[in-house]
Amino acid sequence: MGSLIQKRQVVVFYLFIIIVVLLIGSLWMIQIRDGGKYAAMALEQGSIYVSLEDVCRGKILDRNLVSLTGGQEAERIVVFPSIIEKEEVIRGLSEILDVPRTVLAGLLNGAPCYLPYQLSQAQVEAVKERGWKGVAVLPVNFRYGDRPLAAQVTGHLGKITSREELSTLSSESNKVYHYGDVVGKIGLESMYESELKGERPERSARVYRDAGGNILNGSVLTVEEGGRDGRRQDLVLTIDARIQQVVEDVMDNKAIKGAVVVMEAGTGDLLAMAGRPAFHPARVEDYLREGGGERFFDRCTALYQPGSIFKIVVAAAALEEGVAGTDSLFTCGGTKDNLIHCWNDAGHGSITFSRAFAESCNPAFARVGLSLGAQKIIGYAGKLGLDNQSVTGYPVTPDPRQDLSLIGEPYNLVNSSVGQGPVLVSPVQVTAMVNAVVSDGVYRVPRLVKEVRKSSGGAAEEFASDAGRQAIRPDTAAVLRDLLELATDEGAGKEASVPFYGSAGKTGSAQTGNSKQSVNAWFTGYAPRVNPRYIVTVLVEDGASGSESAAPVFREIMEQILRFD
């Protein structure tokens, strides 16, 4: 009998221990893990406030911790409608702002807010002089400035508009979401929504209320500053804002439609990604209303026919496999060539492999492609990353249209050898391919995101650079660099020549097939020639040719960014 009692006591003891452990675990979850969330909810219930940030959210920063969204601070009129003398305030604000009373009455008929009007210094002083209860002029932090950078990469925000979206966001994060909250819709804003999302404003104007929801007697408008929202995190990119600005300025000045990618030679870090036409993320609804959906399209990771840019792959395969050497001879018949037409109507006649590369001779490279065979070309295209759409830290959904195996389908080999037919690549992939040539044949996956940074400083998550893999032999890469230099010195890429520093690269002109016979014009290359610093790829949609439309853009961008060094 005593043994049975003793066993029961042991069972009760262990049950007690389990209950205590569960209680401690629950308390830890409430007070430590989710403490910020519940504290924010409690504060929200005990007061009404106006956030002095247009959105409670972590920053998207460049490699030097400069904001890419161009955040700025501006004075706004903050109003708590429940504690103001409405008629007097509406009448006074109408006079100061020159806004109809009916408009102001609509704005002041709901929750506390800041009014959406830019203020002159005279208007600021006029509001302050009135001394209205429940009204103040305070600085508000806005996420977007006049010229945010890399908008198609960083993305934009929008309100939660469906129960399904609210449910998905709530299930994917332990943060609090409400119907109508502003969240990331595309780009990095969407990809890193749970990391960037804030729980509460770091600056706010607040008045307190009792348990019944009534404003406490004597409650005054309080400005809370210096708070820290430990739940929001910043995103640090490899982008360099100075270089991004140069690229966007050049594209805007030249009214270019297309894409430009800049990569740091050797590391594979993306220093700039720009597409045009673009959009301002604070005016998304205007673009959608005007039918400007293509502005949100990330051209830097989109697929295009590369044209003669692809001859870098064919040249690498031919050199590596011993199919051709720099002095190997080929024949070009121009428009009369029985294999494929050349851009040079009269033809190049007898031409060496080196000159064929520099002059971008189609018949010569078609013959090289036939000698290699489809599988060799497919293999080297894969080695140089043209089957890999991934970018470290930037999880874009792969486009299934990129299928190198189509090169091996009947009647595709000749066109594929000159970058037409089924061959599709992105500007980022082309840049990474050239980086492998610059890096003695080592291919590295491009990187866009360096880290997710805690609000208190320090990394919450880091994205390491790719260690790389040997794609082609170092001696093959060295010969390719010689060919790229020849193309810029004496061939189709002369307009990309950068004085003093020297440059090297390859043109490409891919026919788009429309009635105007326009092309997607390419140039990709690097500078300086000695110890290359930058790789720049330019794509101009509906251009004339790579040499005429893209090469001069490369030169202008490269000349400007080299000055930073």
Q: Characteristics of this structure?
A:
single chain, 565 residues, alpha+beta, Penicillin-binding protein 2a (Domain 2), Beta-lactamase, 3 domains, five-stranded antiparallel sheet, four-stranded mixed sheet, 19 helices
Description:
There is one protein chain. By secondary structure, this protein is α+β, with helices and mostly antiparallel strands. It has a five-stranded antiparallel sheet with strand order 12-11-21-20-19, with helices on both faces. A four-stranded mixed sheet has the order 2-10-16-17, with no helix packed on it. The protein is built from 19 helices and 21 strands. 43% of the residues are buried. It is 36% helix and 19% strand. It has three domains: 53-71 and 143-235, Penicillin-binding protein 2a (Domain 2) (Alpha-Beta Complex); 74-141, Alpha-Beta Complex (Penicillin-binding protein 2a (Domain 2)); 241-562, 3-Layer(aba) Sandwich (Beta-lactamase). It has helices spanning 2-33, 35-45, 86-97, 101-107, 121-130, 151-154, 163-172, 187-191, 193-196, 241-253, 284-289, 311-321, 353-359, 362-372, 374-383, 413-417, 427-438, 474-489, 546-562; strands spanning 47-51, 60-61, 72-79, 113-114, 135-142, 156-159, 182-186, 204-208, 222-224, 233-237, 258-264, 270-276, 329-332, 349-352, 442-443, 449-454, 459-462, 469-470, 504-511, 519-527, 534-543. Helix 3 (86-97) packs antiparallel against helix 5, helix 12 packs across helix 14 (362-372) and helix 13 crosses helix 18.
